[in-house]
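so my prof wants the structure for this chain in the tokens format not the other one, which i didnt know existed until like an hour ago. anyway here's the sequence
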Amino acid sequence: MGWSLRLPVRRSLREGTGKRVLIMAKKFSELSERDILALAISLEEEDGRVYADFADGLRETYPDTAKIFDEMREEESQHRASLIDTYRSRFGEHIPLIRRQDVKGFLQRHPVWLSRPLRIQDVRKQVEVMELETRRFYERAIRHVSDAGVRKLLGDLAEVERRHYATAGSLQQTITPVVQQKEEDAQRRLFVLQIVQPGLAGLMDGSVSTLAPVFAAAFATKSSWDAFLVGLAASVGAGISMAFAEALSDDGSLTGRGRPVLRGSVTGLMTAAGGIGHTLPFLLSDFHIAMTFAVAVVGVELAAISYIRHRHMGTPFLSAAFQVVLGGVLVFLTGILIGSA
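here's what i got, hopefully its the right format
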């Protein structure tokens, strides 16, 4: 049926003697009607649990899409119940454990559903693959069973899986513009909360707090190289300090601010970048030219911070510029006064 990325067909276990026994996965053609129904029950249960994980992972950022997966999970549960009833009526109460990895030919599934945060594009792609594979399983299973009732049930399930496949492929179209706008707004808020805010805090700290030591060293020594070393040390040190401070501030479970390691890394890197920006000009050997370039870079940094606050935080640009420039000027003057003393 064109299935690829096949699972390993050999597994092993140890007997009581300690010897390793090789177990081969079954070929699909070797499955009995009893095996096929048991496998179908297992597949429906697994798909339902995957959809439940998708719904749970998307509920906060894509609530309306999560409802779609809740409905699909419920349908999978109904399919499983119908299969169990059919199995019991034909083969009794005991249902043997036959899983996808016990049969040759099934796709290897990457556990996308365990990722957090979930990327909705990955989810939709995974659902398409799942539904296509399950539909092909039912279509192939129909040719291996003789009971008319079982054939009808498998055919009905194949048709449902076909509709699920179409739903997965058109999830974007089933979401109304209003719902899509709500979900995009939620995703944007998460981006601001988890990336922009930590990065902005780091950039502001690095750009402003390192002004004093850099320019104090520059005016005290009148040496570009000495100013560069002080600026580099201050920038890297501030980056490490801010990274740990942000990562240890909270685990993100209650605030929704995301993974501590990611936030800490973003904050630390932006802090170091903010300080190194106005430190690099001091690599120029001519002190006066280096100082001129450094002051110009400081102006660019403060303007960039003001724009980011205006763009992502909703602060009026003039208000943001006044706050940032005022703080930067005060720290800059502090460095000059201490360096000139």
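also thought this was worth mentioning. The chain has two domains: 10-175, 179-340.
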